[in-house]
């Protein structure tokens, strides 16, 4: 897989940045603390691998002080292009996070799970025109009194399928979307998550099938971090494909009624056996 060259300045700027916890310590460790604020991270995988569940978890985690590493909390913007946003699922994750927070050492803090839901601003975009129009208007939210710590686009691949014409036009739109999102991330110190699909291809030399992210080779240069989610034989793995200074690696995780968790973690009845997910 083609990778963008990383400069010493990239590494220096990356270190010490605010991070948003995934609620899986193993995934956080894989990412050196969690999802970094100020950059674009890609999460890709097959249907059911857990992409949307992880995005919902992060939308809640961005608001929780015990989930933020070295930074202030803030709300989330969730841009849904596939209809995979499930409010009741977000509610379950918020309730579990609220319960976890109450059990933390900071007994003076008060968190209302209903407030967590109010702080997730939702947009539904059906095509690339809707998506571009939406993200171009996001600056107004940042300029308001509302503090935003996370932008989720779930997914970028779906609206690009609606683009008629050759690949050059899709590339143009992809670059435009990423440019706007990265500027928002940099200017307003928020994390950006973009989910992506996978496609099955055949190795011409060996005839073996393999999966690869969609959006083309050029896309691989754009996200700072690329995280693949895999679900095979009832086992889930988070696989780090690209990072400015972390080695590639893989860790197991599970999806519970309360959200993303480590496989060996059970939290006072909030968790249950792994559930189906997007």
TrEMBL record:
Subcellular location: Nucleus
Bilayer-crossing regions: none
Single GO cellular component term: replication fork
Residues of the RecA family profile domain: 16-198
SUPFAM superfamilies hit by this protein: P-loop containing nucleoside triphosphate hydrolases
Keyword Disulfide bond: no
GO biological process: meiotic DNA recombinase assembly; reciprocal meiotic recombination
Molecular function as annotated in GO: ATP binding; ATP-dependent DNA damage sensor activity; crossover junction DNA endonuclease activity; four-way junction DNA binding
Keywords: ATP-binding, DNA damage, DNA repair, Nucleotide-binding, Nucleus
Name of this chain's protein: DNA repair protein RAD51 homolog 3
Tagged with keyword Mitochondrion: no
């Amino acid at each position: 897989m083609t990778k963008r060259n990383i400069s010493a300045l990239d590494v220096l700027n990356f270190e010490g940045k605010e991070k948003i916890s995934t609620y899986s310590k193993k995934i956080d460790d894989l990412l050196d603390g969690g999802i970094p604020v100020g950059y674009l991270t890609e999460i890709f995988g097959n249907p059911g691998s857990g992409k949307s569940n992880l995005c919902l978890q992060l939308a809640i985690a961005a608001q929780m002080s015990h989930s933020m590493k070295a930074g202030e909390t803030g709300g989330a913007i969730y841009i849904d292009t596939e209809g995979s946003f499930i409010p009741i699922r977000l509610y379950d994750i918020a309730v579990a996070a609220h319960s976890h927070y109450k059990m933390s050492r900071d007994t003076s803090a008060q968190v209302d799970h209903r407030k967590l839901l109010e702080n997730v601003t939702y947009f539904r975009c059906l095509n690339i025109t809707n998506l571009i129009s939406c993200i171009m208007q996001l600056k107004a939210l940042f300029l308001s009194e509302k503090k935003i710590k996370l932008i989720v686009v779930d997914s970028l691949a779906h609206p690009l399928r609606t683009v008629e014409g050759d690949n050059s036009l899709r590339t143009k739109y992809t670059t435009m979307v990423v440019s706007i999102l990265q500027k928002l991330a940099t200017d307003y110190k928020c994390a950006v998550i973009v989910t992506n699909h996978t496609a099955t291809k055949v190795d011409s030399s060996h005839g073996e099938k393999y999966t690869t992210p969609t959006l083309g080779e050029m896309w691989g240069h754009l996200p700072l971090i690329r995280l693949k989610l895999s679900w095979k034989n009832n086992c889930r793995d988070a696989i780090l494909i690209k990072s400015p200074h972390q080695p590639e690696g893989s860790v197991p995780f599970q999806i519970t009624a309360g959200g993303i968790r480590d496989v060996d973690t059970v939290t006072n009845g909030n968790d249950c056996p792994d559930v189906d997910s997007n």
